[in-house]
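Page 37, continued from 36.
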């Protein structure tokens, strides 16, 4: 069967596709909700493809695929295979230095915001990230600095005001006086923003955007909209990292079709267990299967230490976090203490509530 025939013969099912070159090497791994439509898109309307995709297509000579029951599983399998195989074009299409960090430098005369690829570049300074888009990070920091008037153009100076001070973009910490104390308060607010517990700067960006729009200053409104969106993106990523770093026990029920559902158990960003359950199970049987799986998988002792967030972990975490927030399925978080002896009733009630939530969602 040639490549065109294989593409035409693909199912309209969730899964992962593996593109191969003339030597049979896997050069790209991708996921799809509907395999046939996604793979066909590479060979149709090629004018709209990026140069990297066009180069990939020119080298495709064969393909394989792996079916999954759900789109969520396809996303997770794609991550797993990319980590295992390291296909050439997955690396080409994703900058290996794509993950950036924000540092609040403490090795300077006064604390300064910096963007770095290395979370150890500035020693013991506080770091935030990793973030997948450096341009988003830089746009967010520009908005923070501009709105808080800490966009100093000569940050190493202590005795003379910089040019941005005359433009109203710097409070004047470069010139000494009382400004450093005020600057310290602003940096404390910035750190609170990046930690996710102080949204005053975000609120101010939104206020400036709305005020500019009301005054028909549309370019200024668009600028602050972009700053606001970039900062929101950073805070969302911090939520993902925090959620994953806590190494939570997560139980997911997802519909496969009208006759079956999928049970998935996740710890942190790692899938520990998955099973397709047929709809012929009674309510009591379904409850027993789920509770038994939870006890077997999550009942094992763990180190309790936060997991290290690597690039692949971040990709997996983003998939899990986005899925859980999308309400595509039903899920429950299972604290470790619920698995201890004497807490069987609490776990039983939690499983029952999960099943009821899933049944209500399936009936919609």
């Amino acid at each position: 069967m040639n490549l065109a025939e294989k593409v035409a013969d693909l199912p309209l099912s969730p899964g992962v596709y593996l593109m191969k070159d003339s030597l049979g090497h896997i050069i790209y791994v991708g996921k799809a909700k509907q395999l046939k439509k996604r793979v066909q898109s590479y060979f149709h309307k090629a004018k709209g493809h990026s140069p990297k995709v066009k180069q990939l297509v020119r080298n495709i000579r064969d393909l394989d695929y792996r079916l999954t029951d759900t789109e969520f599983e396809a996303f997770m399998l794609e991550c797993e295979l990319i980590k295992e195989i390291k296909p050439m074009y997955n690396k080409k299409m994703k900058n290996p230095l794509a993950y950036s960090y924000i540092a609040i430098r403490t090795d300077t005369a006064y604390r300064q915001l910096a963007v770095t690829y290395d979370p150890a570049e500035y020693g013991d300074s506080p770091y935030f990230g990793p973030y997948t888009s450096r341009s988003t990070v830089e746009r967010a920091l520009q908005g923070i600095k501009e709105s808080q008037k800490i966009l100093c153009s000569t940050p190493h100076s202590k005795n003379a005001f910089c040019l941005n001070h005359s433009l109203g973009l710097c409070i004047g910490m470069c010139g000494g006086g009382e400004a450093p104390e005020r600057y310290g308060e602003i940096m404390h607010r910035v750190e609170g923003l990046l930690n996710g517990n102080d949204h005053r700067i975000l609120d101010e960006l939104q206020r400036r955007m709305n005020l500019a729009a009301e005054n028909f200053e549309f370019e200024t409104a668009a600028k602050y909209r972009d700053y606001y969106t970039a900062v929101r993106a950073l805070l969302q990523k911090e939520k993902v990292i925090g959620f994953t770093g806590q190494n939570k026990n997560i139980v997911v029920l997802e519909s496969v079709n009208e006759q079956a559902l999928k049970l998935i158990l996740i710890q942190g960003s790692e899938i520990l267990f998955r099973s397709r359950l047929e709809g012929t199970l009674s309510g009591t049987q379904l409850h027993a299967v789920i509770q038994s799986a939870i006890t077997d998988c999550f009942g094992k002792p763990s180190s309790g230490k936060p997991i290290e967030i690597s690039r692949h972990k971040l990709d997996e975490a983003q998939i899990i976090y986005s899925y859980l927030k999308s309400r595509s399925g039903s899920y429950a978080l299972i604290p470790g203490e619920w698995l201890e002896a004497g807490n069987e009733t609490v776990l039983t009630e939690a499983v029952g509530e999960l099943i009821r939530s899933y049944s209500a969602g399936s009936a919609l």
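The chain has a mean pLDDT of 86. Flag for discussion at group meeting. The chain has 13 helices and ten strands.
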